[in-house]
Task: structure prediction
Amino acid sequence: MPMFEDLKVFTGNSHPDLARDICSYLGLSLGACEVFKFSNDESFARIRENIREKDVFLVQSVGRPVNDSLMELLIMIDAARRASAGRITTVIPYYPYGRTDKKDQPRVAITARLVADFISVAGADRVLTMNLHAGQIQGFFNIPLDELTAIPLLAQQFSHLKDKDLVVAATDVGAAKRARYMADHLDSPIAIIDKQRLGNEDRVRAANVIGDVEGKTALIVDDEINTGGTVVAAAQALDQHGASEIYCSAVHPILSDKASEALADSNLVSTVVTDTLPLPPEKRFDGLKVVSVAGLLGEAIHRIHSGLSVGAMFNY
Ligand code: R5P
Result:
């Protein structure tokens, strides 16, 4: 028995294609709302249909322009709350500011927590998100949060490598658990790249590889690709340590600056990412494949609305 009479899905401007695909999965039309910027650069949102006591899902992946996308989401939450929505679930396929989840140098903010506070204070009742940079960000919220994972979906894309003496490579020590999860889906061992970040700029150095990659097919797995520095350095390190072929997978394709060129020019055979963020044609390149998470998000929305287990989607 559904907890709320009607399910309504709305989106801002960050990734309407994904919101539409989620609605197709659910067999719904996207809810009517207008979200735009005034000439003074301030954002505005108005929900254009009755949502009194409805089960409202606001889909907004917080990608570039990050601060505008975030502000749109907050304003939409406030609009939905003041329109007497029965329950408001924010659907955030890419959670922003997640890389700063602790005070790892003096006098810095913990922005992942700050964003969580914004979302809660604006009036969200729940959060549905995907592959957070670090699982502990879940605890920054005091409202229910469901974190989905796209790793099994990505693993399916590489099932043909199972017979090729495969090793899954984590891009740093902190990513070992994610690599283990991917490796479990592909029945393979893991290796770990010893990555160092150089200062606060987006520069990385990958020196050593922990684990045996000599003569093996390597599959790099990461949560996101931003500048591409991490995966390109990882691919070089794996090559230097004797990997025969190197593939790459990541959930969130931020692909800033010249990331697409860097990946296209690298020694990676192919790269598979998801559509948690929009990928305009100029960021696509030969060897890049995009798999959709719309079905996963749509199924989770259906389950949240109907009071069914979300964990059961991943055999928990
Ligand atoms: C870092 O800890 C993340 O897991 C990614 O490895 C990182 O955000 C990728 O950034 P870039 O592509 O700029 O190296």
Summary: The chain has a mean pLDDT of 95. The CA atoms of residues 158 and 186 lie 8 Å apart.
